[in-house]
Every structure is written in C-alpha cells, then in structure tokens.
Specification:
The complex is a heterodimer of chains A (223) and B (252). With 223 residues, chain A is mainly α. Chain A has a domain of 152 residues: MetI-like fold. Chain A has nine helices and no strands. A six-stranded mixed β-sheet of chain B has the order 6-7-8-3-9-10, with helices on both faces. In chain B, strands 2-1-4-5 form a four-stranded antiparallel β-sheet. Classes of the chains: A mainly alpha (223), B alpha/beta (252). At the A-B interface, helix 6 and helix 7 of A face helix 2, strand 6, helix 3 and helix 5 of B. Chain A: It is a multi-pass membrane protein.
C-alpha cells in the first residue's frame, strides 16, 4: 500500500473560520485565570516570606500541592470531582479558569517571593530609617522594584498558562484545540488543522512576548 | 533640667549578642544636642552595630536606651517608640541605599510626604532647597544610577535631612567611595556640623574625625575602650589597644 504525505493547503486555510471561535475562549480562560492567579500569587508569595511561621506554612503547602500535581488532574478534579462534593455541576469555562488560577497562582507566588527577596536589605533599612512604616516601605520602595524584576518570569508563566489551556479540550470547553478536534472529526485533515492550531497559539504567545519586551524596556528605562 | 543638657541619646548597660558572639558589651553612652561624636575602631569591633541600635535597625538584648525621650526596649519590642524615633533620627549608609526606581528629587520627597504628610509642592520646594545645599540641584530629575558615588551619597544626605531630623547617624559614609569623591561628602558633613546638627559618625577618616569631632570614642571588641576630645585621644591615647589601633591606621 502506498502512503503519500501531502500537505493540503486549502484544507489548512479552510479550517481557519472553524478554529477562530476557539481563540476568544483560549484568551478568556488564560487571561481570566492568570488575573486571578496573579492575586493568588501575590497573596501566597507574601505569606511565604512572613516572619511568622504559621503564616508561612499554608503558603508552602499551597505551592507544593498545586505545583506538584499535573494541571490536567487539577482541572479534571475541579470539573468532575468537585460537583460530587457540591451537589451541582460546574461550568466548564469556570473550571478552566479556576484551574489556570490555582495552578499559575502557585508558580507566581514563587516568582513574587523571589522578586521581593531579591531586593537588597539596605532598601528597607533606608526606608525604615526615614520613618516609613513597614507597609509604606513595601508599597513605595520594595514592591515597585521587585515587580520590575518579576516581569520576565511573569511573562514566562503567562505563556505557559496560555498553552496549558489546550488541555482543557478534555472537559469540552470550546477553546482552540477543542474546535480543531470537532472540525477534524468531519474532515479527517488532522495534519493541516493541528498545524493551523499550532500557528494560532504561536500568534498569541508571540504577541505577548513582544508586548512584554516593550514593557521590560520601559520599566528599565527609569533606572 | 532644660533641653540643652538633656541627652538626646542615653544608652545604659547596653548588651547585644549575635548568637554566642557578644557584639556590644555594657555600653554606656550619652550624647547631648549639638554634639558631634565620632566612633572609631577596627572592623568587627561593633561600631556600626552600636549606631544601628540607636534607630532600631539592630535589636539589643538588655540595657536601657532612650532616644529623643522615647524608650527603645530590648528585642525590638516598642514599635511606636521606634516609629517616632526614626522620624527624628536620620541615617546615611555606607552603600547610599538610594531608591533606584525614583528620581533624585522623588528620593528626597518620599518620606516627608508619606511620613510627615507634607503636600507635594511643599516637599518639592524644600527638597530642591536641600539638593541645592548639597550641590546637586541640577541633577534633581536624574535617576540615582546616573550619578557618581559622591553625588549619590550627597543625595542620601539630603534625603535624610528632608525629614528635619534632630540627630544624624553616619555609618561609614565614605567607605564605598572612590578616593577623589570622599572630600565632597566630608565637606557636606562638615557644613552640617557647623550648623549645629547632632551627629554620630562611624568613620575611618581620622583627619576628618580630629577636625570635626567634639568627642572621639574608640571601640574594641564591643566595649568602649577609650573616649575623649580628639586631640587627647589621637595625641595621647591612654589605652594600649587605642595606641596600637591608631599606629596601624595613621601609618598611611
């Protein structure tokens, strides 16, 4: 039997209108999840560097649990597992956003911790010596510097989370991969369609990279 | 007792340990308003730790410490007193510790606005006056990293003075500077001393100490080994440790 590998460009281009509806879902899940994850990350990242041990350990447990388990298991747990506890089903979109939030939150809390700890002790000493409270020192001196140092790592996490949303095709949320699968089921053009799906992810992540580079350059210009 | 004789710093039987290391050993020290005290001693003798206790950047384990009529307690247990003391006591650090994300002017106006509650306009006008006084008025809009070390340290001085402190602490203010920039910082400090500021200075600049100090304190292994007016301490040191320390540092 003869097998021919032929890339059918018309099939590839023809899939575009069927894939495009997935993009808003992919963006909504990733950016919605990341926005929440950012606040989770700040919260646990700051707990993690608290001088009080009983504030530190919940943060350590959180990071270990959500960084140490696969995001696919996390979303399956939320979508199929939690409803058994709650007694009511969870919307697939909500489950996806929640999974990105708790997962990226764990990584972001480590980014926050590292960023804040990277600021020299002299900065807080100078602030305190001027009479600023610890909170003021953090808000006006430590955090703005720490945040600038965190930008590259946060961008990295953003890109990872965008790609992670592809796993959520398993819970039926209509993101990019899911749209591709649905289309392939009728056309059997897996090669062309997945190629286009990959290109669309690349378009999203590449745009984000460019924006981040500009943000970084602007952030550094001040110093 | 009136205000001029009441000491602004009163340290009695102060002790500090880092683990098993006894860093400060029964320190007794009174500083009166207007006095310029220079603390000298070998590195690791505890002189920096001593002045960092005065504004609570270091905790101590036992003894009494009253700064500007607020009492600091052992183990840093007195947040309110600490806050009050820090608004009245300025500090200049060896590494400048300017805020790199803020312009020179914003470095100087931050604390007066956030701590003293000055309006932005008032903070800016007094900030500019202070920058002018230390000779950096034309650099107000630059960021610290664009300034030389000597300029940065003068900004740090202006930043501390912007809080209108009653006491200034200097922790080796010229030790991180290139030799050619030491003079400009010492000049600014000399000026401040002339205006009557109470100053406690940890330094290795013996010539400056002799010229500016009302009193020189020699610290050895966490204890005040000897103190007195600069002529006396530098020319006729009594303690054998003082003699050998001075012989070492004055040789070059």
């Amino acid at each position: 039997m003869e097998v021919t590998f032929q890339f059918d460009w018309s099939a590839a281009f023809g899939s575009i209108p069927h894939l495009l509806p997935g993009i808003p879902w992919t963006l909504l899940i990733s950016f919605g999840g990341l926005a929440i994850g950012f606040f989770i990350g700040i919260f646990f990242g700051l707990l993690r560097i608290s001088p009080l041990r009983w504030l530190r350990w919940p943060a350590i447990v959180y990071v270990e649990v959500f960084r140490g388990t696969p995001i696919l298991v996390q979303v399956l747990f939320i979508f199929y597992g939690l409803p058994q506890l709650l007694g009511s089903p969870i919307n697939a979109l909500v489950a996806g956003i929640a999974a990105i939030a708790v997962n990226s939150g764990a990584y972001i809390s480590e980014i926050v911790r590292g960023g804040v700890q990277s600021i020299e002790r002299g900065q807080s000493e100078a602030s305190l010596s001027l009479g600023l409270s610890r909170t003021q020192a953090f808000r006006y001196v430590i955090w703005p510097q720490a945040f600038r140092r965190m930008i590259p790592a946060l961008g990295n996490q953003g890109i990872i989370s965008i790609k992670d949303t592809s796993l959520f095709s398993v819970i039926g949320v209509g993101e990019l991969v899911r749209q591709g699968q649905i289309y392939i089921a009728t056309t059997f053009t897996a090669l062309e369609v997945y190629f286009m799906v990959a290109l669309m992810y690349l378009a999203i992540t590449w745009t984000l990279s460019i924006l981040l580079r500009q943000l970084e350059r602007r952030g550094l210009a001040g110093q | 007792m009136n205000d001029t004789t009441q000491p602004i710093v009163r340290m009695q039987q102060l002790n500090k340990h880092f683990g098993s290391l006894h860093v400060l050993n029964n320190i007794d020290l009174d500083i009166v308003p207007g006095e310029v005290v220079v603390i000298i001693g070998a590195s690791g003798s505890g002189k920096s730790t001593l002045i960092r206790c005065i504004n609570g950047l270091e905790e101590f384990q036992s003894g009494n410490l009253v700064v500007d009529s607020s009492e600091l307690l052992p183990y840093g247990k007195s947040t309110q007193a600490l806050q009050k003391i820090r608004t009245e006591v300025g500090m200049v650090f060896q590494q400048f510790n300017l805020f790199p994300h803020l312009s020179v002017l914003d470095n100087v106006t931050l604390a007066p606005m956030k701590v003293r509650g000055l309006s932005r306009d008032d903070a800016i006008s007094s900030g500019k006056r202070l920058l002018d006084r230390v000779g950096i008025a034309d650099q107000a809009d630059k960021y610290p990293s664009h300034l030389s070390g000597g300029q940065q340290q003068r900004v740090a001085l202006a930043r501390a003075l912007a809080m209108e402190p009653r006491l200034m602490l200097f922790d080796e203010p010229t030790s991180a500077l290139d030799p050619e920039m030491i003079g400009e910082v010492l000049d600014a400090m000399r000026e401040l001393a002339k205006e009557g500021m109470t100053m406690v200075i940890v330094t290795h600049e013996m010539g400056f100490a002799r010229e500016v100090a009302d009193r020189v304190i020699f610290i050895h292994k966490g204890e005040i080994a000897e103190q007195g007016p600069p002529e006396k301490l530098f020319d006729t040191p009594q303690h054998e440790r003082t003699q050998s320390f001075l012989a070492r540092v004055l040789k070059h």
